[in-house]
Amino acid sequence: MLECLMVDYIRPSISDEEIESQEAMLLAIEPWFNLGHGVPPIAYIRAFCLVARKEGLTVAEYAAQAGIPSSVMTRNLLDIGDVNRQRGKGLELVVQERDPFDLRKHRARLSAKGRKLAHDINVALRRMRRPK
Fold it and tell me: Are 95 and 82 in contact, with CB atoms under 8 Å apart?
């Protein structure tokens, strides 16, 4: 009976493709551990990925993509920017610049540190894509 339970415990409950996706996720989040701040909340990671995927959008545009209120995206972008919402040091991954055509709007782009993080994530994922 115990032998039967051990076999069930060892047998994966998800497909090989799903296991591979989990391995890719582990590789992709590894560079976040190297930032020296601990791993930020997943909302910050999502905000970073949205900016990295398409720089130069407004807070409202990123919020719409994420399906969250603009006020929440504003907080997330502040916290991953130079100065967080408590006026402390942010993660310094993005910078927000005033739109020269509409001074009420700010457009986000990656900082040098953010570009390095995006590069490190890409390198980590490339390891996953190498033929075995």
Answer: yes
pLDDT surpassing 90 at residue 37: no
114 C-beta neighbours (distance < 10 Å), count: 22
Identify the residue whose tokens are 């996720």: 25
Which residues, other chains included, contact 19 with Cβ-Cβ below 8 Å and sequence gap of 6+? 12
Task: Kindly report the length of the chain.
Answer: 132
How far is it, in rounded angstroms, from Cα 60 to Cα 106?
10
pLDDT confidence of 108, banded at 50, 70, 90? very high
pLDDT number for residue 38 = 74
Neighbours of 90 (CB within 10 A): 20
DSSP 10-75: HS-SS-HHHHHHHHHHHHHHHHHHTTSS-PPPHHHHHHHHHHHHSTT-BHHHHHHHHTS-HHHHHH
Global pTM value: 0.83
